[in-house]
Amino acid sequence: MEIEKYNPKDKLSKIIFITGGTKSGKSEFAEHLAKKSNYMTYIALSEKRTKDETWDQKISMHRKRRPKNWRLIETTNLLSILKTEIGPILIDSIGGFVMESIYEEDKEWGSKQNTLIDILIKRKSLTLIVGEQVGWSLVSEYKIGNVFIERIGELQKKITKISHENWLAINGRALKIDDISLEIPT
Known about the structure:
Blueprint: E1 15-20, H1 26-34, E2 41-45, H2 53-65, E3 71-75, H3 78-84, E4 89-92, H4 95-100, H5 106-122, E5 127-132, H6 143-162, E6 165-170, E7 173-176
Parallel strand pairs: 1-5, 1-6, 2-3, 2-4, 4-5
Antiparallel strand pairs: 6-7
């Protein structure tokens, strides 16, 4: 009789987390994985930006790539959506959640961050999350930039710990980092 090895990943939610830098291919890879599902709700976390042609072009490109049968939710209030959305979802990108709370005090931010993690852990359906890798180069000269870097880094470490799969998109390639990395003890 063989004894099954305990695998802590078996107890994790159905989260697939894809991170990467700007233009790394992270959104395209998440969309590629999401197309394996018959149904998908795409949650775009951003505010509408009037008079920003570059942003409009980027959003248009994203829309053209997505299948027509995907449901689209454009919001900055991720927590309220996650409380009601039960089917498979793709969140693009988690930086929008950080920006929505950027001016809140650390205690409020910590509470929101913990609420998000608790909700994600309880989800039963496939959850793809796209996240921005920042902080690999220049340090912002502005406080808000550094707050964003610190908060997104902290949040993404927490999401990584609860994810069933973790991927890094870089230069149009995707690396499954679970297979080639060790968790850093904290």
